[in-house]
Design a protein that fits this description.
244 residues, mainly beta, Immunoglobulin-like, 2 domains, five-stranded mixed sheet, three-stranded antiparallel sheet, 3 helices, disordered N terminus
């Protein structure tokens, strides 16, 4: 149908509904069944009648016959920006698949796998997670962090009034964390050798005495990977024993 020029006062603003991304449903047919028949090609008359006049159960039965649902893509470098320039011709839609999806009711095999429905195989070899890739591990050292930072007397890791915890995150499986005061004194060394990507520090020194507030330097050494240094600032609250 030729476009009506009077319908397009501002042809630059005319955009197809939903950007032209209309769903396309491909239905199979089962004329060998005695009921609930989905015929072969009938110019979509049965589908139209069900959608127009059928109840919810009829529509549910209808969509059980849908074999593919797709959204068409226009050819590269082509866009429906101006209705006046859309070619006046039939639209051809191509849906490509390697194997047709159907169940042959007339030739069922008694012991066929998957109850005679099609079976497909695939693998994820090209996207499988790789382990022990040193170059990647070196890059990920930059993700190591301590949270919360700064620490103002409280963190989400604490469950009671006497808890004080921070967490070192994004750690490799094996590493050593050495915590220094700003004057260079070592106050705590934490060893990690497990699959957890974090380790928790209770804000105590090597003698299990709570640290004082201030700035601390944390050195992370991951054997075979590299090292990372981060700074942390904490303000500790006095112990609250009112609830005891």
């Amino acid at each position: 149908m030729e476009p009506n020029l009077s319908d397009y006062h501002d042809e630059q603003e005319q955009i197809p509904v939903f950007g032209g991304k209309h769903y396309i449903y491909i239905f199979g047919h089962n004329e060998t069944l005695a009921s609930n028949i989905m015929p072969g090609y009938d110019s979509c008359r049965k589908i139209y009648d069900v959608l127009e006049n059928g109840n919810s159960a009829d529509k549910m039965q209808l969509f059980m016959h849908a074999m593919w649902v797709s959204i068409p893509l226009v050819p590269k470098n082509y866009a429906f920006k101006n209705p006046l320039t859309i070619p006046n011709q039939d639209i051809k839609i191509k849906i490509r698949m390697a194997n047709p999806y159907f169940r042959d009711i007339g030739e069922l095999e008694q012991y066929a796998p998957n109850n005679n429905y099609p079976m497909y195989s695939f693998n994820t070899n090209n996207i499988v997670v790789e382990k022990d890739v040193v170059e990647v591990a070196k890059e990920k050292l930059e993700l190591i962090n301590v949270v919360p930072n700064p620490y103002y007397g409280y963190s989400e890791y604490e469950a009671t009034q006497v808890d004080n915890y921070v967490r070192f995150t994004n750690l490799p499986q094996k590493c050593t964390l050495t915590i220094y005061q700003s004057n260079g004194t070592i106050i705590r060394r934490l060893e990690k050798d497990n699959e957890n990507p974090y380790i928790t520090w209770d804000l105590k020194n090597q003698s299990q005495i709570p640290i004082s507030g201030g700035i601390y330097i944390i050195h992370i050494n991951a054997p075979g990977i590299g090292e990372k240094v981060i700074k942390w600032f904490g303000v500790l609250r006095p112990t609250d024993l009112i609830g005891y």
